[in-house]
Specification:
The structure holds two protein chains of two kinds.
Chain A lengths: L9 E2 L5 E2 L2 E12 L2 E12 L3 E5 L6 H8 L7 E6 L2 E3 L4 H7 L1 E3 L12 H7 L9 H5 L4 H19 L15 H14 L4 E5 L7 H18 L2 E5 L3 H7 L2 E6 L2 E6 L1 H5 L2 H8 L5
Parallel strand pairs in A: 5-10, 5-11, 8-9, 9-10
Antiparallel strand pairs in A: 1-2, 3-4, 3-6, 6-7, 11-12
Helix pairs in contact in A: 3-6
Chain B lengths: L1 H34 L6 H17 L5 H8 L12 H22 L9 H23 L16 H11 L7 H23 L1 H11 L1 H6 L4 H27 L8 H12 L4 H21 L1 H4 L7 H12 L14
Helix pairs in contact in B: 1-7, 1-8, 1-10, 1-11, 1-12, 2-4, 2-5, 2-10, 4-10, 7-8, 7-10, 8-10, 11-12, 11-14
Classes of the chains: A alpha/beta, B mainly alpha.
């Protein structure tokens, strides 16, 4: 069983080296009126790992992700990113820090093509002036070409070449999920947050998506935090798992540790039948 | 032959009127594209911009009546006048300020509300601006002269008279309006298609949450879009104000923009242009050919009937985004 040390990295079951802490959440409490969606939760995300958050419906998983991405501001607790305490931030500011995300109910720009959607992911990578962009001149041109190259690489990577020019509104569900992943990747994020990347997919689509997530982590070394319902998928994909129930953290560790945690079994997996 | 030449003169005049309609329609399209809001106040913004421009040029004291009533003073004008160019720049700055105020006081509090709520807010804004314009600059009819050439163009008349034996009557203001509108449109298209701010603007129009997640600040985009709409209103205000005086009826040109938008599509900048031209030419030609048969005055209703017919056969307009729905 892997022992997770306080500040150094660790080696995963499949032999990858995981780095130090990138994101540290300390005693996060989030309330909606009188309801406590998250109760004093602490955990960290390390450089290069795939971190999963699981739990039954209404456990507060999505709220947790929304805290990390700045969509919700917790009433108590601290968010530390790369060794610095993060003050209250707007979601777009968090995105600019290098935290990209996807949504549970796909949020894409339906009227734009797949290519344009993915290009929006690179908006913050463009620094050339406003006028040179409008007349497509000098630095703006080089920049756009460089950005296009990066985007084409992601398109190849996710195998969506044939739908590049299709308006997103016309795509089937599974492909939309993939385009959303592509847009998040286009930002070259430090941390990639995936809110139920496999919800509503059939077995084949789930397998594809799992492969993409693993490849992204492997190829680009991207740190990934994801929420997922499908236990099989979670256990196969992730290096470490946080288990939530009714807004509390009831387990944290490698998939094996979590699987054998009695509280987790009772709350979520149910009592095992032989 | 004469009949044909006369018809083509009417056609050209129609095109130029159409450009003026397009100018107003553009302001609507911009805001609608960026925030899904139909900005009822666009016409009043044109009026307000024109009033402010005249006020600054003449060196009027803003809120003079209010100040006089409160303090018993007799203020009306400062001792200076301002050159048109400087006055236009100052008015543009005022429109940016207005955009910031609109974002801070109205839009910010209505994030995520239904479009109808935002629409109602713009109706309120329209009445507020109308009143503010009156209180600030007075309700009298003003003439606006920023130095644009006016009157019938002698050159065009002479050239066409020599060539065709029939002198075309074309207003020089219309020619200038066409040139300025064409430049403005080219700039706006380049902006929305090729700049990152333009792409961000289209993104915000589509999905607020997704836009936030890729690092777009809604606040910035809204202020930007309302500022641009303010500039477009200023240009429209200058053109129409020069043509027919700065007065309340200036805000009613917004009504002519409605059929233009239905024709062109609410979401398309080229649509606003083509729609404006079709309405402009259409109503002039209709008045010319059919008008005499039905007793004239067809210009008042022709545009709306045309828009109605379009609504039946092509509800998204000529260039509007197709309404795609997966079931």
């Amino acid at each position: 069983m892997t022992q997770v040390q306080a500040n150094e990295g660790y080696i995963t079951a499949d032999g990858r080296q995981i780095g130090g802490v990138v994101m540290d959440l300390r005693d996060i409490t989030l309330r909606f009126g009188g309801v406590e969606a998250i109760k004093k939760i602490s955990f960290d995300i390390r450089q290069g790992e795939i971190r999963a958050i699981i739990g039954p419906n209404g456990a507060g998983k999505s709220s947790m992700l929304n805290v990390i991405s700045g969509f919700y501001v917790p009433q108590e607790g601290e968010v530390w990113f790369k060794g610095e305490k993060r003050g209250p931030m707007k979601p777009y500011e968090v995105a600019r820090l290098g935290i990209a995300r996807t949504f549970q109910n796909i949020a894409l720009f339906d009227g734009m093509t797949v290519l344009d959607n993915i290009m929006t992911g690179r908006l913050n990578k463009m620094t050339s002036g406003f006028f040179s962009q409008a007349i497509w001149w000098g630095r703006a041109e080089r920049e756009e070409i460089a950005n296009r190259e990066q985007v084409e690489k992601i398109i190849d990577f996710l195998e969506i070449q044939n739908i590049r020019k299709t308006p997103v509104g016309r795509l089937p569900y599974g492909l939309k999920k993939r385009v959303e992943l592509a847009r998040a990747l286009a930002a070259e994020p430090q941390i990639l947050l995936l809110d139920e990347p496999m919800a509503g997919m059939n077995v084949e689509e789930k397998e594809d998506m799992s492969r993409f997530i693993l490849d992204v982590n492997d190829e680009f070394g991207t740190t990934i935090a994801l929420i997922e319902h499908d236990m099989g998928v979670v256990m196969d994909l992730s290096d470490r798992v946080v288990v939530m129930d009714y807004g509390r953290k009831i387990g944290d560790g490698t998939p094996d540790e979590v699987r054998n945690n009695q509280e987790v079994i009772d709350a979520y997996l149910g009592v095992a039948h032989d | 032959m004469d009949q044909l030449l006369f018809a083509s003169e009417v056609f050209i005049n129609g095109l130029m009127t159409g450009v003026m309609y397009s100018l107003v329609a553009l302001g609507f399209v911009l805001i609608y594209k960026a925030s899904g809001v139909f900005n009822y106040a666009q016409g009043v913004m044109a009026l307000f911009a024109a009033l402010t421009l005249v006020g600054i040029m003449d060196g009027q004291v803003p809120f003079a009546h209010l100040i006089n009533a409160a303090f018993g003073t007799h203020l009306s004008h400062f001792s200076w006048t301002v050159t048109p160019i400087l006055a236009i720049l100052l008015t543009a700055a005022a429109m940016v300020l207005l955009a910031i105020l609109i974002e801070k006081l109205v839009l910010k509090h209505l994030v995520g509300q239904e479009p109808i709520i935002l629409f109602m807010a713009t109706i309120g804004l329209a009445y507020f601006l109308e009143g503010l314009g009156d209180v600030m600059w007075g309700a009298n009819i003003k003439t606006l002269d920023v130095g644009l050439p006016q009157g019938i163009s002698d050159t065009v008349e002479q050239v066409t008279a020599n060539w065709l034996g029939y002198g075309f009557f074309i207003d020089r203001l219309d020619i200038w309006a066409t040139i300025i509108a064409a430049l403005l449109v080219a700039a706006l298209v380049a902006f929305s298609q090729y700049t990152k701010q333009g792409r961000a603007m289209r993104a915000v129009a589509d999905d607020h949450q997704a836009a936030l997640s890729v690092g777009i600040s809604l606040q910035f985009i809204w202020i930007m879009v309302w500022s641009i709409a303010g500039f477009v209103a200023l240009v429209a205000g200058i053109m129409w104000g020069t043509k027919s005086g700065v007065q309340f009826s200036l805000s009613l040109i917004a009504l002519k923009a409605l059929p233009v938008l239905m024709l062109g599509g609410f979401t398309s900048i080229p649509g606003a242009i083509v729609g404006g031209l079709i309405i402009g030419v259409g109503e002039k030609m209709f008045e010319f050919f059919i008008g005499p048969l039905v007793g004239g005055a067809t210009e008042n209703w022709f545009a709306y009937v045309l828009a109605l017919i379009f609504l039946v056969f092509r509800p998204q307009g000529l260039f509007g985004e197709r309404i795609i729905e997966r079931v």
